[in-house]
Amino acid sequence: DEARQMYDEAARVSWNLRDHGDYRGALNGKGILEIEAGSLDAAEEIFWRSFRSAGKEESEGDQARAKMNLGIAYQSRGTWQGYQAAEAAYREALPLAQVWDDPDLLGDVLFVGGLKLFLLFFQIVQLLLAIGFDLRQSLIDRLFLGLLELGDLVLDALDGFLAGILVDVGHDVLGEVQH
Q1: 160 has a pLDDT exceeding 50
Q2: Contact between residue 87 and residue 106 where contact means Cβ atoms under 8 Å apart
Q3: In sequence order, which residues have a C-beta less than 8 Å from that of residue 89 and are 6 or more positions away?
Q4: CA 159 from chain center: how many Å?
Q5: Which of 89, 59, 60 lies closest to 73 in space, CA to CA?
Q6: What is this structure's pTM?
Q7: CB neighbours of 73 closer than 8 A, spacing ≥ 6?
């Protein structure tokens, strides 16, 4: 309860100072706290507020982080609908993170979205096998094709991410050589 109050106070002060980036940071912190407390409805509402605030300022990076966090909240529900909503949120976060010049953010979105959904695929297959479900090849193929499609998105983003790093390193090396 004390941590919630601290995040609320940080958000209020940041808003009053018109520091909307810190405002969204406080919202995201409180939203993560709500996930950990199991208050998923509250977390989703907080992340949506952060997303809308970022959209008004055209801050794709903050939008990406809010969408990624929404995906975590949705996935935390542990329902099929939650997983579907999480996948959609991760897919929406990825292009937003790609256009933002922040390798850490892109790495977070790639890691959280890609890894969580990849692990979910294997959990689903293991669960179905454990309960004796007759996994027909077509079902496995369909699940695997979905995973491959997601993997293509992740690889495309990773390709751009790595290219950006190479360009940055190249600029650094050229700067050192010219001095």
Answers
A1: yes
A2: no
A3: 67, 68, 70, 71, 74
A4: 18
A5: 89
A6: 0.66
A7: 31, 34, 35, 40, 43, 44, 47
